[in-house]
Amino acid sequence: MPINQDNRPLNRRLAILQVVFGLVLLLLLGKLWHLSVVHYSFYEELAHNNRVRTVPLVAPRGLILDREGRVLADNVPSSKLLVYRDELDDEEATYAFIARGLGLSPSQVRESVEKASRRVGRFRPLEVTGSLSLEQVAYFKARQAEHPEVRISRQPRRLYRHGPLAAHVLGYVGEINEAQLGSKEFQGFKPGDVIGKFGLERQYNRLLSGKDGSALVRVNSQGKATAEISRQEPTRGSPLHITLDLDLQMAAEEALSQEIGAVVALDPRNGEVLAMASSPAYDPNGFARGLSAEEWEELNNPGKPLQNRAIQNAYSPGSIFKVVMAAAGLRSGVYSLDTTVYCNGGATIYGHRFRCHHSGGHGRVGLELAIERSCNVYFYQMGRQMPIDQIHHYASQFGLGRATGIDLPGEVSGLLPSTRWKREARDQPWYPGETISVSIGQGPINVTPLQLASAIGVAATGRAPRPHLALRSGAGEVSSQAAPNLLEDFDPRHIEGIRQGMWRAVNNWGTARAARVEGFDVAGKTGTAQVIGRETLEKLSKEEAARFTTNAWFAGFAPRDNPEVVVVALVQQGGGGGAKAAPIAGKLFDLYYRKHHLHEPMQSPVELR
Amino acid sequence: MALISRRFFYDFDYVLLAIVLALTSFGILGVYSATWEAGPGPLRGHLLRVALGLVLCLFFSLFDYRRLTDHALPIYLGAVAVLVATLFFGTEIKGSRSWIQFAGFGLQPSEMAKLAVLLVLAKFLGEVRESYLGMRTLVLLGGLFGLPVLLIILQGDMGTALMYFSLLGATLFLAGLKMRIVVAMVLAASLLAPIGWFSLQDYQRERIMVTFNPDHDPQGVGYQVRQSKIAIGSGGLTGKGLGKGLQSQLGFVPEVHTDFIFALLAEEVGFLGGGTILILFGLLLLRILSVAGEAADRTGILLAAGVAALIFLHMLTNVGMTLGILPAIGVPLPFVSYGGSSTLTMFAAVGMVINVRTRRFLY
Lengths: 609, 363
Known about the structure:
The structure holds two protein chains of two kinds. Chain A is α+β, with helices and mostly antiparallel strands. Helix content of chain A is 38%, strand content 20%. In chain A, strands 2, 3, 4, 5, 10 and 17 form a six-stranded mixed sheet that branches. A five-stranded antiparallel sheet of chain A has the order 12-11-20-19-18, with helices on both faces. Chains A and B meet through helix 1 and helix 2 of A and helix 8, helix 11, helix 12, helix 13 and helix 14 of B.
């Protein structure tokens, strides 16, 4: 390290640098002064005459089409009312003028303008109202010259051609809100943008949203456009073809229309969801138009029409679980295909009497009969020999207890109990008696209709493709729907036995006769699950109790030997399993049979315009 | 090892840091005004990078700068390696392949490499024993300097490459280049200019033409610069108020939170605001040069002066462009533009200057 360096020449040159830097800075300061002080009025004038407007050119969202290319979600032109606040000379007059045109009070207009202005810069147009009627458009058009600050803009609006049809799957769109603006999911979207808020619209929002464009337009002092300076065309969103079959979807919704519940139909060979209905439903067009307070109230009533009951709610599966249980018992080796038990109307296990629903008893019962007649005792005895964690292990291979991973937001995972769950959730040990309840689908076990459809598909085919709704998009394949094979070595003879038992439940004297279709080999299973506790139950009369306290299930597939379609129907508070749910499924099987096996022409659905 | 002693706090250059923070607050105002409509995201991102910059600044002031210059060569070689890698595996953004994705951030090695090049120049020239630089030294230097700059030009980032010349110019000038050679170089440069002119891309030539004749293309670059001038001019003495700049808010002025942020500030806080920014830059440069004047060794002098030159050229290029007196070469305004790799680099550079001042006494 040199210590006695002579830095004098260096310091001289540093001084030169100081002078140079200083001079250049003075020069810049001078130029700034020259522009903003000396020539202020000149540039002020230029800026003022730079009356250029950005006219938003909103991109239409991509179409959503069913598997046969029938359009479910479309766009229609609509007119919006915009206010340019930088040209607002007399607020009161403008608000009064808009209020007259819209039939509102000036204070309401003021409120909506002020609300919108909190999020939009002063020089961008504010949207006062979503969609104008023809008369309103005419009113504002005629007075354009008096009020150049108020303008009409044509923008595409989402239209669901069949109103509430498949509403829970499609979801709905709406204006992005504060919370979403800051979120990762909607990065890159700006205030005022219309985004998918629910269902597929949300799941595939990026794909369906096009890219908005804008035009820079020079306007004169009356607000008339005189020239277009530049234009960036909007790009339309990509179309999305989905797996739903409109015919099946309509049949499902019609069958469910008087009930509260859900229906799912899927193709067990590839996981394509053919129908997914949830009732009560709602009309997603309301969101695109803008909702009135009453409509909003209606949507948030206790009936919860916005909820997709097929995936957002888990229910006690009741006897339907026996199908999964049977497979678990066989695969674990606890039972063989030849195992039989004797049912005398119940079984005493751990000193407690567990009843069969057929108090006279089923007699000697093997696998097929147990499924056909839904004999509890057969499964009680199976549950006695299987620890809960073993049941958990096998049942989870059927996809229970976790989300199926369908491409929809908001799917719940349901509940498949285990000793670990009991410890973590309730801080209690697992009691063997609970295992007996779980073995017939009672107790702490919950499934979504979709999970159940998926699980029945697994039981009927031995394969476990992931349920999904996206078929393909304009931008190529949507996402790989690889079928994870959850199952190691599913014995085909086991499948055969379970299929046969379910076929007998529908076609012999089993519990699911209402789902029969002449000429079509339907197999299925019903279930009834308690909804409320025993104390409440005792206060009700017998009929009321059946009506209000049980969920009715049906789950089945067809044809028996080479399953092409699985249908699950759930009717909340629908009484005994066969009564409400099986006929709904029967309608779907019937339609599927006529369409795909008899090739009957289908009625084309009525469209909204 | 860096011991944060009482001495460190005593000698720390608070004045320099205060000036930088004043500039930074103008930047925060500008970024907020330019991006508030898009939600809090951009501002948050900017503040995050400024905070990160401050951490870097502190870090680079902690240990004796000679520990850095002693390892200048390996640091330099590492930087060159990264530049080469970027050239091959980088991400292309806006026509230049100068980005690497790292931990969710896009980094520009060409920004960070400025420090490595400065270190190597300061070290090398700081230890030259000749009172005037000889030919051999110059050729070697030319190689050291030319390699990274060439790589950056190959990445297609002319603006950044141009900034490097401030480092070379300042260090050579200070390290005792004969005035004759300085003059000769200026002459050579002006003779070579036509060759450079033809090696430029069309759009770059366009930009330079436009500077001399703004009406040349009313829609392209010239249009942007014109809008920027209208924004600045219509700001007047006191400005239109934050968030009320018609020009900037309407999106007439392009890149308003990055390269044209000075135009937005001049429009919204007027000559007083814009002038204050320029004066702050003046104070900053003078302060750094005075640090150079007090430095303990030649390397320290060259380090500090190099940082001053780097900041100066950025500021000149950026402000000159917004005022319409220099070609539209998009470079960020140090400490003011929306944060990025350049922000981090500048803060680190200031950290090194503070470092040089803290250790101005030989101990």
